[in-house]
Amino acid sequence: MAKRKSTRVEMNRPIDIQGARGSSQGVVRDFSPGGCRIQQADPKVNCGMRVTLRISLPDRIDPIEIKPAVVTWVGTDAFGVEFLSLSTDTRARVKAVYALLLEAQTAHESERVISLPGVSWTSPSAK
Fold this sequence. Notes:
Layout: E1 9-19, E2 22-32, E3 35-39, E4 50-55, E5 64-74, E6 78-83, H1 88-110
Antiparallel strand pairs: 1-2, 1-4, 2-3, 3-6, 4-5, 5-6
């Protein structure tokens, strides 16, 4: 399996998928400038299938259309797609949203509190 070009960021956004077998809906679970993972019960896609995606990104009300995208893997309840060729405007929007989500996810990670069971912290003045 090829290594990813970009780190994926977590996402939970609705998506419409249009392909040779009709249209369906799913949820984008992770996202990068080069592709995404789509959660969908019993996906009706095959590896290599080209699809058109309409994703409601968090930056605007109007969804973004990505075509073509190609299905790269299929699981029982999800599948992955690679964005093949994006217009200049679409690429700029995808990269801007990705950068914001990556920054928010990274900040979120660094602000996590780690607690260790059985360890109590007391201030020196409490002794």
